[in-house]
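PROTEIN DATA CARD
Card holder: Cytochrome P450
Chain length: 401
Origin: Streptomyces zhaozhouensis
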Amino acid sequence: MTADHPDIARLVDPASRFDPYPLLASFRAASPYAVSDGLLVVGRHADCSAVLRDPRMSSERDRARLAPASKGPRTRNFLHLDPPDHTRLRRLVVKAFTPRVVARLEPRIRELAEGLFREAARRGRFEIVSELAYPLPLRVICELLGVPFEDRDLLEDWSGKLSEALEPPLPGLVAPRATSEAARARVQFITYFRELIAQRRRSPRDDLVSHLVQVEESGDRLSESETLATCVLLINAGHETTVNLVSNGVLALLHHPDQLKLLRGDPSLAAGAVEEVLRYDAPVQLTSRVARGDGHIGSLPVLDGDTVVLLLGAANRDPEVFDAPDTFDITRPPGARHLSFSAGPHFCLGAGLARLEARIVLEMFASRVTAPSLAENGLAYRPNLTLRGPDRLNVLFDDIQ
Ligand code: HEM
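Structure generated from the sequence above:
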């Protein structure tokens, strides 16, 4: 930190979990700037968008001068690879997430969501995170991959630990214990998928794991460790993020009863509501890139190996791009694009699926839950900065239809 730049480490303060946006606005206004040697912060929409699309900005985090010394060879998933490996691996799974394929999932997602609302009605209470936002996307991605849903407790445990490792390289942020737990969870995931892959090799089914096994066997396009890394990436990215979109969405509607009423009156606003939640309270707040070679972001010099932290949640509220950026307005006209799904070659592969799941859930929440309100002390946040969302969200209601 320099004297005239706000201290980015203040984001870590638990007090800013409930509303980090005033702090993020100060970082955005001061950005781009260097936090310390090798660590830069970018928060303006135009700069984030340019960095995400710039081929000289690498996704290979271990190129960073700040990166911890690598402990032996490890296969990275394609989120953390550059072309040509990124292009090759992404292409193998992109077909499973095209708009047509995703649209076909709608009846099944509706059926699952209806079941979860029915159970909440029977119980007479609704804890949104564990009873709706987590189980729905986890079940959907398990079914797509062909992972038995009975193993959900294991998967939840390992995924949660892996999420810790997504934290940006801010001083004091990732405790060494969290890093070693993440490494252990990665090994457990790999062992789990190695067994599942062996089963699908013996008797293939109509699922994504079987598809990847067939690709691996049909030539030299995919190694076994790449298959494993892709499975772990898909299961994690497929639910750890969507849980926050659903919970942040329900919370935003509870905090803005006028918007909830609008949605209740006109369910066709649900798609716009999802876009507005993505912009207003991004489930993935941060990502980063590593500079290949020297250059500039605006007038800020960038050196080879510098880590550039991109504040997506701040960019989404940039007044240069969005009118009244701190207002939650589900009828906001389409136009300016939020960066919640990133941009450029790593644009979220599951964006269509996440949008569909959230649209179904927010529409059902608005139309079926009568007189919903946030329970007293009903909200607690996860400590994570990268994945932002509640840990607990208790909703009171009169009835669920
Ligand atoms: C990549 C956000 C849901 C799969 C990304 C990135 C972001 C993101 C920001 C790119 C990070 C970067 O550029 O460094 C989200 C959000 C979601 C969501 C906010 C939900 C609200 C999903 C779902 C899947 C998924 C449901 C299902 C498979 C992926 C994959 C990548 C990715 C595979 C890597 C793409 C690549 O590197 O080419 N996501 N995601 N995501 N996402 Fe999502």
